[in-house]
Design a protein that fits this description.
Layout lengths: L6 H7 L1 E4 L4 H11 L1 E3 L9 E3 L12 H5 L19 E9 L6 E5 L8 H4 L4 E5 L4 E5 L1 E4 L2 E4 L6 E4 L3 H7 L7 E3 L6 E5 L3 E5 L7 E9 L8
Length: about 220
């Protein structure tokens, strides 16, 4: 166990939850799991996420398209050829009825056959200044990795239509209801996530994304 992390649940379910974690420990945990990486060029390692209306959000973000409504399923860093392994989120300020974070474990969806079913699916990835084709399912450091972002990746090929009817409409395999100090760690290679519908001013979440050089963070 690393810094109190339930590694069994992280490996078996694709996520785990820690309680009553302050910011200093949150940053320490992220550093112990791998390499914390800014989500924006020249940006900070620690992001502060708050619900925003479409007109108040940065262009080309999920918030700029969906505003306070429910977000679609996605993985973070899907445009990268080397997407982050872990997403760490910490509740700084949350109300009792704050938006949840939903998780979709692709290994359990469809009786565990989803990743195999779509192993030959290709995505047209629209990065900032270029586009490229990438598989929906790949291997990174010996570990199966899937990535998906409905704004930046477009399925192609014979099973693209089936994918678009299967995955975006899939129900969550887990739902996290936030309390102050909660930390949610998601395996970004095997799980998609989304935010439920939100209200302005009721939710402040810290986020750090972590890249890894090895298949397992446990020393």
């Amino acid at each position: 166990m690393l810094l109190g992390i339930d590694s069994h649940n992280l490996e078996s379910a694709g996520f785990c939850v820690l309680r009553d974690v302050d910011v200093a420990r949150f940053i320490e945990i992220a550093g112990a799991m791998g390499r914390p990486t800014p989500t924006r060029r020249n940006g900070p390692v620690l992001d502060v996420l708050t619900p925003k209306r479409e007109q108040d959000a940065r262009p080309s973000t999920i918030s700029s398209h969906y505003g306070l409504g429910q977000f679609p399923w996605h993985s973070d860093g899907a445009v990268d050829k080397d997407p982050p392994r872990y997403i760490l989120m910490r509740a700084d300020t949350v109300a009792a009825d704050s938006a949840t974070t939903d998780i979709l474990d692709l290994r359990s969806l469809g009786e565990g056959k989803t990743l195999k079913k779509y192993s030959r699916l290709s995505l047209l990835v629209n990065a900032r200044n270029f586009s490229y084709l990438a598989p929906f399912v790949m291997r990174r450091n010996g570990v199966i990795c899937a990535k998906w972002d409905p704004l930046r990746t477009t399925p192609t090929g014979k099973i693209a239509e089936e994918f678009l009817s299967d995955v975006p409409a899939a129900p969550p395999t887990a739902v996290h209801h936030w309390h102050p100090g909660d930390v949610l760690i998601i395996d970004n290679w095997r799980c998609l996530h989304r935010r439920s519908a939100a209200t302005v001013g009721q939710r402040v979440i810290h986020r750090i994304v972590v890249k890894v050089e090895r298949s397992n963070y446990v020393a």
